[in-house]
Design brief:
alpha+beta; five-stranded antiparallel beta sheet
Length: 374
């Protein structure tokens, strides 16, 4: 029987070959997404966990066992770490069948049990009946499943997924994401997923760690980071476009406040931690920008209403991206997306004047960003 799963904890720092100043933690049964630009150190951290790279300083513990500690000079080899690793290119043995690729990772079991366990894992990953096929006879999605079955074959203490869906088409990618979400209920180990896809992280992850230039910028739930970033830099890294500077005019007894931005004043639901007259940065996610209906205004549209001219109206399938230049201040632009059928029903088009509301609960305040005043 495999040992009970335990938490993964990592602290890593180094100056070369790429700079690192990173921390992460992942609980049993939790999926942690590592996100950040290319070259931010995501794959390097996976290699550190697997024992394929040793940082200059730091420690790695899993299930209460120290795998690496620079000060204590502990550095377990990869084969002693019980890591399941799915690489971007799957790294299957081309001359072996799907079944035999999985059997190769079952050396910890008696020979008499390996074939049955390999068939069980292939069935778990929806490959029943494909046992005898070699990688060249499998689709990209099927190869990914074989790689996942082989990673699980080690009864891993931690499962590492390095952009595992990047080599497949979009339809297959969505199907594999659903399968991974279902598989998590059967695999009670920490899972660390490296991805560039913020939607994928939001859909699959319990928690996210955002990296930039090898440094951990913020950890939390996907919703925390994608709607309440800790800084303007983080807001831009997670592709939030509505990032501005402003001044907090007032903080109310209930923690709400009044934000001044250019010629506008907005109600803010949460102003805690900031003093009145503080210069700050603020962001509003596009989903908290509500387009007013022309035919039947709602009560919610009374909240921070602003009017402007549609500067850009780009149809992207079932969603339309709108950039609104606010009335009296064309340099002040708000971007948001709405369903395309709503755009058509309301006659929204470039050059048209429309009204939107900025929900007070969606406006998020952050420390002031140097050298930016708008």
């Amino acid at each position: 029987m495999p040992e009970p799963a335990g938490a993964l904890e990592l602290i890593a720092s180094q100056t070369q070959p790429i700079a690192l100043q990173a921390e992460l933690a992942c609980a049993p049964g939790e999926l942690l997404a590592l996100v950040g630009p290319s070259g931010s150190g995501k794959s390097t951290l996976l290699r550190c966990i697997a024992g394929l790279h040793s940082p200059q300083q730091g420690s790695i513990r899993c299930g209460g066992v120290t795998w690496y500690d620079a000060q204590q000079r502990i550095n377990l080899p990869p084969q002693a770490r019980r890591v399941g690793f799915v690489f971007q290119n799957y790294s299957l043995f081309p001359h072996l069948s799907a079944h035999d690729n999985v059997v190769c990772a079952l050396g910890h079991l008696p020979p008499s049990q390996r074939a049955a366990r390999a068939r069980e894992l292939l069935a778990m990953t929806h490959l029943r009946g494909l046992d005898t096929r070699k990688p060249a006879q499998l689709s990209g999605g099927q190869q990914q499943r074989v790689a996942l079955a082989r990673a699980l074959a080690r009864d891993p203490a931690v499962l590492l997924l390095d952009e595992p869906f990047s080599a497949v088409d979009q339809v297959t990618r969505r199907r594999l994401q659903v399968e991974l979400a279902r598989l998590r209920s059967e695999v009670k180990t920490p899972i660390v997923l490296v991805t560039h896809d913020l939607d994928e992280a939001r859909m699959l992850a319990d928690r996210m760690t955002l990296l930039s230039h090898g440094r951990t910028l913020q950890s939390g739930t996907p919703d925390d980071i994608l709607t309440r970033p800790a800084s303007a830099q983080i807001a831009r890294l997670v592709e939030l476009n509505n990032v501005f500077g402003g001044t907090l005019e007032r903080v109310n007894a209930d923690g709400s406040g009044i934000l001044c931005w250019r010629s506008h004043k907005f109600e803010v639901a949460r102003a805690n931690g900031f003093a009145p007259a503080t210069r700050l940065s603020w962001v509003i996610p596009p989903e908290d920008v509500i387009l007013h209906r022309r035919d039947r205004p709602s009560l919610g549209e009374r909240e921070n209403p602003v009017e402007g001219r549609v500067d850009d109206c780009l149809h992207l399938g079932d969603a339309t991206r709108i950039v609104l230049a606010l009335e009296g201040d064309p340099r002040a632009r708000i971007s948001f997306s709405v369903p395309t059928h709503v755009v058509r029903r309301n006659g929204v088009a470039s050059g048209e004047t429309v009204r939107v509301s900025l929900l007070a609960s969606g406006i998020h305040l952050m420390p002031a960003e140097a050298h930016r005043s708008t």
